[in-house]
Design brief:
The structure holds two protein chains of two kinds. In chain A, 37% of the residues lie in helices and 23% in strands. By secondary structure, chain A is an alpha/beta fold. In chain A, helix 3 crosses helix 4 and helix 5 runs parallel beside helix 6. The longest helix of chain A is centred in the middle third of the chain and has 13 residues. Chain A starts with a strand and ends with a helix. By secondary structure, chain B is an all-alpha fold. Helices cover 74% and strands 0% of the residues of chain B. In chain B, helix 8 packs antiparallel against helix 11 and helix 9 packs across helix 11. The chains are: A alpha/beta, B mainly alpha. The interface between A and B is large, with 53 and 39 residues.
Chain lengths: 260, 341
């Protein structure tokens, strides 16, 4: 299998604080991988390192074999490394149509074109239509994003990333704050991604993690605690201790026979 | 995929295309605006110079709208480019390039280089940083123009501009040719700006204005776009400055003065940002008010401008600034709205 995204001994320190400590993660193409960890484990820092918002203190990041460690965020996106945000990051004064249109134009390498309006470009329009349709945003495509209900904004948040046609997609708590009834729309859209797209899900919600991920990495205090299949991680007493909030000792005693 | 679905998607596709075209289509009101400008040349022959000045200031405010209204870059030193363009146009005329159009093009090109060079200073930082940096660049240019008297004439102003005829028409003392010239240049540059803001490039600027973090996260090269629009904006400001120098056959330190930068921000605030007409309406309102108020109270007209500004910002620039537009659209039975949003 080909490696989609890989970090080698990634370290990030802020002054005396080590936020990311020697993290090596490897995502094969088509992986459905989850990154979990308690609050303050360094998940956000790791995303910022992967997307280029922060520069690592040491270590390397490669995207499909290409070193992207020092590359600017927007270039990584054009190479196919795209993220969504835990808290919606949208363009309040623009419509969903324009938001998606812009993402599509950038992906097609036409974002710098300043002469022809998007409305006259069948190639761009077709892609916008397809995305808006898939995310059930067609009925609100001409409205200001800021005036949309939260659920729709959340869908647009994901749709804008999908419109970039990612090869590796980082989903940062995609269902955060979404009411039960609207969650399925988002989960369906994520599930409908082409199999060759690699997905890294950063999530708190264990239901979602176990439903979605085939492999799971556990981050604690900036260090990778363990990595394995969903079943392995679910069984791991250390994970239960630090992440699920159970007492390590008690858990060990309880499961001692099984693991001994 | 079934036929039914295909035709659904086709129908939606058409709907999306229509929606977008409607946003970028010409409205009746826009036509009236430009016809009124053209008609004023015939109907108000005694006001040629005033309307010329309004066209020049409108273009200047439009240039500020490109960076402030579309890309979110606030500037308190935009007169740097206006003044540089004015001096450039004046100096090259004085040293032999007497054709107005050639002078305009050269002045604009030179200022674009300055805009490009200084764009790197406004890429980062808060609004306050940008205000101070742009103001600083403006002050530096002002002092340079003040010092190099052999080139600019210093405090006395640049004299000895002998502009040739424009396409065979000599500039007259009533300003008839001047008004026509400025109006046509304004119209052409407006058309270009209008296309630019409705292009993918223009959309990406608005995205940067709304949320630069996310813009980068969907692949927009934020810095490159900001450099491009800042350069374009400098070129537009230079065109306004060059028109002023050419039509008045004079350039002085006043074109680089702080009040120019402040006034243009004020005009744009009066007219509203981010829909291209704000600068034009603001310049019109500002100049007409100046004209009327300074007749009534020559000493204190700025008192009224100040009062208006405070009222407007508190009551809401949107509501008050677009009042004429809203009224006119009501009268024409159209829904209020604006092209850019």
């Amino acid at each position: 299998m080909t490696v989609a995204l890989e970090t080698s001994s990634l370290v990030k320190t802020f002054g005396g604080l080590t936020a990311t400590n020697d993290v090596s993660i490897r995502l094969e193409q088509g992986d459905r991988h989850a990154l979990i960890g308690p609050n303050g484990a360094g998940k956000t820092t790791l995303i910022n390192l992967l997307t280029g918002v922060l520069r690592p203190t040491s270590g390397r990041i490669t995207l499909e074999g290409r070193d992207i460690t020092g590359m600017k965020p927007d270039r990584r996106v054009r190479l196919g490394l795209v993220r969504t945000f835990q808290i919606n990051q949208l363009f309040g004064a623009m419509t969903p149509f324009e938001t998606i249109g812009m993402a599509v134009a950038e992906r097609q390498g036409r974002g710098h074109e300043f002469w022809r309006g998007v409305g006259h470009e069948a190639q761009i329009i077709d892609d916008i239509v397809e995305i808006l349709d898939r995310f059930r945003l067609t009925d609100v495509m001409g409205e200001r994003t800021a005036s949309l209900p939260y659920g729709k904004q959340r869908l647009l948040e994901i749709a804008a990333a999908i419109a970039c046609r990612p090869r590796v997609l980082l989903l940062d708590e995609p269902a955060a704050g979404v009411p039960e009834g609207e969650r399925e729309d988002i989960l369906d859209a994520v599930a409908a991604l082409p199999a060759e797209v690699t997905v890294l899900l950063i999530e708190h919600d264990m239901d979602l993690v176990f439903r979605f991920a085939r492999r799971i990495s556990v981050l604690v205090n900036g260090t990778l605690l363990t990595e394995g299949s969903a079943a392995e991680v679910a069984r791991d007493p250390r994970v239960r201790a630090v992440y699920l909030g159970e007492s390590y000792q008690g858990d060990k005693a309880h499961q001692g026979g099984g693991h001994g | 995929m079934s036929n039914n679905e295909t035709s659904d998607i086709q129908a939606f596709r058409n709907q999306a295309a229509r929606l977008h075209r409607r946003l970028s289509h010409w409205r009746l009101l826009e036509g009236i605006f430009w016809l009124a400008l053209a008609a004023s040349w015939f109907l108000l022959p005694s006001r040629h110079m005033l309307i010329n000045e309004i066209a020049v200031l409108g273009l200047f405010a439009l240039s500020l709208d490109l960076i402030l209204g579309y890309a979110g870059i606030i500037s308190l030193g935009h007169a740097a480019f206006f003044g540089f363009g004015a001096y450039a146009a004046g100096i090259i005329t004085k040293y032999g390039v007497t054709d107005p159009l050639a002078g305009l093009v050269i002045a604009v090109a030179l200022t674009a280089v300055l805009g490009f060079a200084t764009s790197f200073l406004v890429l980062r930082g808060s609004d306050l940083t940008r205000l101070m940096v742009t103001l600083g660049v403006n002050l530096i240019l002002y002092e340079i123009a003040n010092q190099v008297t052999w080139l600019t004439g210093g405090a006395d102003g640049l004299e000895g501009m002998n502009l040739g005829p424009l396409l065979g028409f000599d500039f007259d003392i009533y300003g008839a040719v001047a008004q026509a010239y400025s109006s046509v240049v304004l119209f052409v540059l407006f058309l270009i700006a209008r296309r630019v803001v409705h292009s993918p490039f223009g959309w990406s600027l608005r995205a940067i204005r709304d949320n630069p973090l996310r813009a980068a996260a969907i692949g927009v090269p934020v810095n490159r776009r900001l450099i491009a629009v800042y350069t374009l904006s400098a070129a537009y400001a230079a065109a306004a400055g060059a028109l002023l120098a050419q039509t008045t056959q004079f350039a002085s330190l006043d074109v680089l003065a702080f009040h120019r930068s402040a006034d243009v921000l004020l005009m744009l605030t009066i007219g509203g940002t981010g829909y291209l007409y704000g600068g034009l309406i603001g310049a019109l309102a500002f100049d007409v008010m100046h004209d009327i108020l300074s007749d009534i109270t020559p000493q204190y007209w700025e008192f009224w401008i100040g009062l208006l500004l405070v009222t407007m910002v508190l009551v809401g620039r949107e509501r008050l600034g677009r009042l004429p537009v809203l009224l006119a659209e009501r009268l024409l039975g159209r829904k209020p709205g604006h092209a850019a949003e």
